[in-house]
Design goal:
Elements: H1 3-17, E1 19-21, H2 22-29, H3 33-45, E2 50-52, E3 55-57, H4 70-75, H5 80-91, E4 99-102, H6 106-109, E5 121-124, H7 127-136, E6 140-142, E7 147-149, E8 154-156, E9 169-175, E10 178-180, E11 183-186, H8 189-199, E12 202-208, E13 220-223, E14 230-234, H9 239-247, E15 251-255, E16 264-265
Parallel strand pairs: 4-5, 4-9, 5-6, 9-12, 12-14, 14-15
Antiparallel strand pairs: 1-3, 2-3, 7-8, 10-11, 11-13, 15-16
């Protein structure tokens, strides 16, 4: 990977987490820790980040004017390696000049770190995803109309005419609260309304869900599992859950966490 691309990925990762370690950046870029230390030194000298013991920290908040965000911030700290591996596999499905929809969530958010060199048209209801792509990629970014919900970092509207009907995508990449035989579920009716509007605008639906999402429960169904064409998860998925996904006719992609470079497709 070229030095410039590595450094863009490091800066993008810091935008999402504020602080990162040398080991995390090495896993993200596939570079050696010695190389990452040199990148951090160069970025620190250019005043793009602050060098700290064992890693680096951002110079400022990633989303000015949006304090709090506790729900999303907490989700970003859970199963980080799994979510990053899943996002890497999902990003590989994108090709330059594609039109894509990416919904808000802690797993879909990780995709931005693997789209730093991409040139896509992206519709997203996530304020943090939009901000990252604007700063760290060549993507054209479109947002629906609505209010920003600080805790989730989502742009949501109760009205049908939020602008999404004017965008058509090859694929929608979507994180969910839970996956079960009953279907894909979320926690809030307003989120479900937004996601369903976005889903109607995509030819294919790709679900990003780490293994813990198969144990979650939610009473609000978003769509049947069969609505998805592809589901990307990590190696900790149980045989029972994997069989459930395949029985629904959904292509299962299992992302490798260690090394994170090669996914297995069932």
């Amino acid at each position: 990977m070229h030095e410039r691309e590595r450094q863009r990925m490091i800066l993008s990762a810091l935008k999402g987490r504020s602080v990162g370690t040398v080991q995390e950046f090495a896993a993200l870029t596939g570079a050696s820790e010695a190389t990452i230390r040199r990148d951090i030194q160069a970025l620190s000298a250019a005043r793009r980040l602050r060098k700290v013991r064992g890693g680096a920290e951002a110079l400022s908040s990633s989303v000015p004017g949006l304090p709090g965000g506790s729900d999303l911030a907490l989700a970003r700290t859970v199963n980080v390696a799994e979510k990053r591996a899943i996002a890497r596999e999902a990003a590989r499905l994108c090709e330059d000049d594609d039109a894509a929809i990416i919904n808000g969530g802690s797993t879909t958010f990780q995709m931005v770190h693997f789209l730093t060199d991409a040139s896509l048209q992206v519709m997203t209801n996530s304020f943090p995803i939009a901000e990252h792509l604007m700063q760290h990629s060549r993507c054209t970014v479109l947002l629906p109309a609505g209010a920003v919900y600080r805790a989730q970092g989502l742009i949501l509207s109760p009205f049908e005419a939020d602008g999404t009907a004017h965008f058509r995508a090859r694929r929608m990449f979507m994180g969910v609260q839970s996956v079960s035989a009953l279907g894909l579920a979320e926690t809030d009716p307003l989120i479900i309304q937004s996601e369903q509007r976005l889903m109607r605008q995509a030819d294919e639906l790709v679900i990003l869900a780490d293994h813990s999402k198969f144990g979650n429960r939610s009473s609000l169904l978003l769509a049947p599992l069969e609505r998805a064409q592809i589901l990307v998860t990590d190696e900790a998925i149980s045989d029972k859950d994997a069989a459930m996904v395949e029985a629904a006719g959904v292509q299962l992609v299992v992302a490798r966490v260690e090394g994170g470079m090669n996914g297995q497709r069932a």
